[in-house]
Amino acid sequence: MLQTYFQQELVEAGCDEAGRGSFAGPVYAAAVILPPDFYHPLLNDSKQVSEKNREILRSFIEKNAISYQVAAVSHEEIDRINILKASFKAMHLAIDGLSVRPGLLLIDGNRFTAYKRIPHRCIVNGDALYTAIAAASILAKTYRDEHMTQLHEQFPVYNWISNKGYGTKEHRDAIEKNGLCIHHRKSFRLLPTGEEYLF
């Protein structure tokens, strides 16, 4: 059962990312502020929700949230600054876009770079504990999946429509056979040492 609040004095924004462990594409993050009476029976950590239900939840969250924003950091920037910093930057960009300034940030995970002067709490498995973080996980995941589906049309050989850029055996086999493309994260070790092919 998801908890509605971490506390009730300050306006809370839940924050989560999607795509940190992917081999290709950007990392996405979402920040969400929900009303006190927000409820949907399907809402949970995005990894525990079917694709069909994630789309239902995305529409419901976008319609009923007080404020929400989704942001992305490109694979090029991931390679420049590393994936952890890129994940935090995506969260900062999402918070930047909120129309209401939160008083407390609820961050999924165990680390975060402070955002301006807004206090934050890092919560391990927060997307399975707090409503606002779960909502952020749904938005980040659905927006990123949509983007990877579009990239699949450019490079169908990797089947990103199915694996969304993650390191499945299918994806790893396709990389070994075809090499890397322009959307792969070159700072990740995706091919045996000394092998790198670019489209």
Tell me about this structure.
This protein is an alpha/beta fold and 199 residues long. The protein has a domain at 12-149: Nucleotidyltransferase, domain 5, CATH 3.30.420. The chain is built from six helices and five strands. The protein has a five-stranded mixed sheet with strand order 3-2-1-4-5. The model is unreliable at 193-199 (pLDDT under 50).
| Major β-sheet strand ordering | 3-2-1-4-5
Q: Which structural class do the helices and strands define?
A: alpha/beta
Q: Going by CATH, what is the homologous superfamily of one domain?
A: Ribonuclease H-like superfamily/Ribonuclease H
Percent strand equals: 15-25%
**Series of H and E elements:** EEHEHHEEHHH
The gyration radius over C-alpha positions equals: 17 Å
Classified by CATH, the class of one domain is Alpha Beta
Low-confidence stretches: 193-199
Task: Describe the global form.
Answer: globular
Biggest sheet architecture? 5 strands, mixed
Question: What is the distance, rounded to the nearest whole angstrom, between the alpha carbons of the first and last residues?
Answer: 47 Å
How many helical stretches?
Answer: 6
Task: State the helical fraction.
Answer: 25-40%
CATH fold category name of one domain: Nucleotidyltransferase, domain 5
